[in-house]
Design a protein that fits this description.
The complex is a heterodimer of chains A (277) and B (383). Chain A is α/β, with parallel strands linked by helices. Chain A contains 8 helices and 9 strands. Chain A folds into 2 domains: 174 residues, Rossmann fold (3-Layer(aba) Sandwich); 64 residues, no CATH class. A 6-stranded mixed beta sheet of chain A has the order 5-6-7-3-8-9, with helices on both faces. Chain A has a 3-stranded antiparallel beta sheet with strand order 2-1-4, with helices on one face. With 383 residues, chain B is mostly helical. Chain B folds into 2 domains: 150 residues, no CATH class; 202 residues, MetI-like (MetI-like fold, Orthogonal Bundle), CATH 1.10.3720.10. Classes of the chains: A alpha/beta (277), B mainly alpha (383). Chain A: Pfam families: ABC_tran (PF00005). Chain A: Belongs to the ABC transporter superfamily.
């Protein structure tokens, strides 16, 4: 079964919850296949994401975490249920460019310099050139890539490329940042570094982040809430509040609170028998 | 190889130890000295039979010695190159003196040694990056081939009707320059350029359309395979019947030949954008046009250049062949077909030279343009 959808108050301040930024009700997505055995990628998913939260979707491959993110971004269309983004349909939200999406790979265009890659969404929005450049510089500085504006993506390391792609998503100035395993392809040292960077970025900008990962440590370190998912069919098993202080350093991973939450996540994943196969 | 602290500095600086390459050069040289170098006035001529051959020989030996004692391998290679030039000039000198080289094996064995020596020098020079490796080495290689052609044709007195020497072709190029220029203007500047632009432009435009209308791509691609198998000699006379003798029929042949390669390459290029890049554009709410201009066309550039380069040579071939089947009395294909009939093979070869230079010029220009616009592509990146 699926977990009850927590209609909740903002844990950090105790204020009544403002309108949620993402709200899904019995959302499902079934892919038709050639052999007439449709694949259920999402089954009866209920999820509410409050403004300012950092929500991680965690689960083994095939649990639908990326699909759920893509549905929020209107890159996939659900076959059942309801979903709103900022009170709009995902398509309306996409057309109004209300979210920034960071993909598994940096997906920088190799024929553009780093700066012009970050300017790409602004070009499409029709923002004047001077402002485009100012905003690109600002975001590159935010992700620590000042001085690399004129480099081409392939002259940068994998971690720097992914930071550039985060800057590109931030350049849209979205309230909602959707990230699909952005650090999955990076080594652990770079990954730790970028995680620290990301949590500081999230705190300083106050954006809402939805973050897909299959690393428990990464999810616990970054999130305010962790959504545990399970495959076949893709569904939500548990939603775990991660009430560590918002200001986090890498040392927090040694604390007992961290271990306790990680343990709960691991239990949640076990419950879905997701290690069986 | 290393300098030893002996009293005799001369022998220590000679880099001769176990240089089998040099031995390989020395052997044919020594064999050459036992053979006559040719015949003059019906009499066999030896190496020391009253020609300047010994002077050349001494010069070559001196440069080899100088090369061996040069402070660096590269400086040695340049010195030895001077010796090679001297060695290659010997048969040319003897030919000018009226010596029949085909009467003796001496010069030919000597040339074998000179070729081996050139091999060694080019090997040394190509280890040097930059200008030397990219320009000097291929230049010397090509020059070597030309001179070998010259010596062989003149040495064995090959009839010019079969194969003229490069010097004769060069002479014809100069002598017939005005005619060749008119041919060039008619064939390249008028027919090829217009046909090429029409064919490539149409191929590109239809590819953009076929990308929007999937059944067009499905219907056209098999036709593309069919069209690429059409022999140009088959359609050229038909096009001349349809469009007349002037450039229009040549352009039509070129359009038929270039349309499908451009179509196929453009379609391949347009479909080469990755899913993730397309998703990115979708997340920006970019429509078809924006996605095309900002992502899919830049991404397709290497494919487009591929098509353009293939077509540049196809277009030239198409125009020349089409001119065989009817043309106003000017044009490279017309020139080749009429001068062959009149046994003026020098002019034919001069026309072929112009065509070859034009073809490689077009190709090279496009390759440079490609390098300038797709420097980002993995195949072009220079770190």
């Amino acid at each position: 079964m699926h977990s009850p959808s927590p209609s909740r108050t903002n844990g950090a301040t105790g204020q009544p919850a403002p309108a949620p930024i993402v709200e899904a009700r019995s959302l499902s997505l079934v892919y038709p296949t050639a052999d007439n055995r449709p694949v259920t990628a999402l089954s009866e998913v209920d999820l509410t994401i409050a403004r300012g939260d950092f929500v991680s979707l965690i689960g083994p491959s095939g649990c639908g975490k990326t699909t759920l993110l893509r549905v929020i971004a209107d890159l996939e269309q659900p076959t059942g249920g309801r979903i709103t983004v900022e009170g709009l349909t995902p398509e309306q939200a996409r057309l109004k460019r209300l979210y920034g999406y960071v993909f598994q790979a940096p997906a920088l265009y190799p024929w553009r310099t780093v700066e012009r890659n970050v300017m790409l969404p602004l070009e499409i929005m029709g923002i004047p050139r001077a402002e485009r450049q100012a905003r690109a510089r600002e975001e590159l500085q935010r992700v620590g890539l000042s001085g690399f504006e004129r480099k081409f993506p392939w002259q940068l390391s994998g971690g720097m490329q992914q930071r550039a792609s985060i800057a590109r998503a931030l350049a849209l100035k979205p309230d909602l940042l959707l990230m699909d395993e952005p650090f999955g392809a990076l080594d652990e040292i770079t990954r730790d570094h970028l995680n620290l960077h990301l949590t500081q970025l999230w705190r300083s900008t106050g954006k809402t982040c939805v973050f897909v990962t299959h690393s428990i440590a990464e999810a616990v370190f970054l999130s305010t809430r962790i959504v545990v998912m399970s495959p076949r069919p893709g569904r939500i098993l548990d939603v775990i509040d991660c009430d560590l202080p918002r200001e986090r350093t890498l040392d927090i991973r040694e604390s007992p609170e961290f271990a306790a939450i990680a343990h709960r996540v691991r239990d949640g994943l076990k419950e879905g028998h997701s290690y069986d196969d | 190889m290393s300098r030893q602290a002996t009293t005799n500095t001369h022998t220590t600086s000679l880099r001769t130890a176990a240089d089998w390459g040099l031995v390989a050069v020395a052997l044919p040289t020594l064999a050459a000295l036992t053979q006559p170098i040719g015949a003059r006035g019906g009499e066999t001529l030896g190496w020391f039979g009253g020609s300047l051959a010994p002077l050349f020989l001494i010069g070559v030996v001196l440069t080899v010695l100088a090369g061996r004692t040069a402070p660096t391998r590269i400086k040695g290679a340049w010195t030895e190159l001077a010796g090679i030039v001297l060695a290659w000039l010997l048969p040319l000198h003897l030919l000018d003196e009226g010596v029949d080289l085909s009467a003796g094996a001496g010069v030919w064995l000597f040339l074998v040694a000179a070729i081996l020596q050139l091999w060694r020098v080019l090997g040394a020079l190509s280890a040097r990056p930059g200008w030397t490796r990219s320009v000097v080495v291929p230049g010397l290689f090509g020059l070597g081939l030309l001179i070998a052609w010259e010596i062989l044709v003149r040495g064995f007195q090959v009839p010019a009707i079969l194969l003229p020497a490069p010097s004769r072709i060069a002479g014809a190029l100069v002598q017939h320059a005005p005619v060749l220029w008119d041919d060039f203007r008619q064939t390249v500047l008028i027919s090829v350029l217009r046909g090429y632009l029409l064919g490539c432009g149409a191929g590109f435009a239809v590819a953009i359309l076929a990308d929007r209308v999937p059944f067009l791509a499905r219907g056209l691609l098999p036709l593309g395979n069919l069209a690429s198998a059409i022999p140009v000699v088959g359609i050229a006379p038909i096009m001349v019947m349809w469009f007349g003798f002037d450039w229009q029929s040549k352009a039509a042949v070129i359009v038929v030949m270039t349309f499908f390669p451009m179509l196929v390459n453009t379609l391949a290029g347009l479909s080469s954008a990755e899913r993730i890049q397309l998703d990115l554009m979708r997340s920006y709410a970019a429509g078809y046009g924006r996605t095309l201009v900002k992502l899919r066309l830049p991404n397709a550039l290497p494919f487009l250049f591929n098509g353009l380069k293939i077509n540049s040579t196809l277009a030239l071939i198409g125009a020349i062949v089409a001119e065989f089947f009817g043309t106003p009395v000017v044009g490279m294909g017309f020139r080749i077909s009429t001068e062959v009939a009149r046994m003026n093979l020098d002019v034919v070869w001069a026309s072929i030279t112009v065509a070859a230079l034009t073809g490689s010029g077009l190709y090279g220009g496009l390759a440079l343009l490609e390098r300038a616009t797709t420097a980002w592509h993995p195949s072009m990146r220079r770190r």
